[in-house]
Amino acid sequence: MSGQQARKVMRGAGEPTVKVSLGGGVIVGDGAFTVIAGPCALENADQVDKSAAAVKNAGAHALRGGAFKPRTSPYSFQGLGEMGLKLMAEQGKKHRLPIVSEVMDVAQLELMMDYVDVLQIGARNMHNFSLLREVAKTHRPVVLKRGFGATLEEWLLAAEYILDGGNDQVILCERGIRSFDNTLRNTLDLAGMAWVKERSRLPVIVDPSHSTGVRSLVVPMALAAAAAGADGIMVEVHPTPEIALCDGPQALTPAMFGQLMKTLPALLAATGRELAHPEALAAVGGAR
Ligand code: PEP
Ligand code: MN
């Protein structure tokens, strides 16, 4: 890649990784491994409560969940909208977990600012340059997913839009790309993640859920991401995946997620790293 245009996202010699603060003392990019977990979609009060409690009890650092869902079919569940954001913000405050949720459209941004700590830009929106520019203006931390047809250079240039807009609080998220092989939902480009990690100043995390689409592969790929040097993961966990309204087949059960969190420290230790230890000082959950 030329790298000539992606100036602000590229790492200068000896330059450290940008530390992205999610709120509540949770930092991504300081060398420790951060875990963002929660359901694909926020569905109802009970599901949000159980999801938040499950991920917090297992030691997650931040809660994810979609209120606005970019679904392939217009007839699929589209998300709870503001009600979902309210439910998640309540749980974020209760459990002292920063909350991460996807903004699909510039028109949703003002509403989301009242509730979420971290704005997620989904794979389908990585090329939505007007959204990238508006998100930059908020100065809220951003998780920028790689588009499923995007080259590494295009992904970095999408991040460049946000940095160029004055917001360097950007976390890159590898979530799998489309290849000739459609056996799995996507193809996890771990080498691409590691390549970007070497060259960019931005922290890079991996989404082992959308990159596989298969529950049994999520824990192995989460561990592989940790071994390959990712700054963290964003993983889908559902209290009852069999009745999930979205992405049930790739959701970890709370028990599987608990086991992953128990396995990670030893694996990270093998490469001289550890799980993040957030100091839960400030109240979080949209309380800015
Ligand atoms: C998600 O995180 O729920 C999601 C829709 O992811 P992606 O944009 O990577 O498909
Ligand atoms: Mn999902």
Describe the structure.
The chain has 8 helices and 10 strands. The chain is an alpha/beta fold. The chain has one domain: Aldolase class I (TIM Barrel). It is globular and about 50 Å long. The mean pLDDT is 95.
Strand order of the largest sheet: 3-4-5-6-7-8-9-10
How many distinct helices?
8
- Give the radius of gyration: 17 Å
In sequence order, what are the helices and strands, one letter per element?
A: EEEHEHEHEHEHEHEHEH
Cα separation of the termini: 39 Å
Overall shape: it is: globular
Q: Work out the number of β strands.
A: 10
Topology of this structure?
Elements: E1 20-23, E2 26-28, E3 34-38, H1 45-58, E4 62-64, H2 82-95, E5 99-102, H3 109-113, E6 118-121, H4 129-138, E7 142-145, H5 152-164, E8 170-174, H6 190-199, E9 204-206, H7 215-227, E10 232-236, H8 254-269
This protein binds phosphoenolpyruvate (PEP) and manganese (II) ion.
Phosphoenolpyruvate (PEP) binds at residues 40, 66, 70, 122-124, 145, 175, 210.
Please tag this protein with its features.
288 residues, alpha/beta, TIM Barrel, 8-stranded parallel barrel, two-stranded antiparallel sheet, 33% helix, binds phosphoenolpyruvate, binds manganese (II) ion
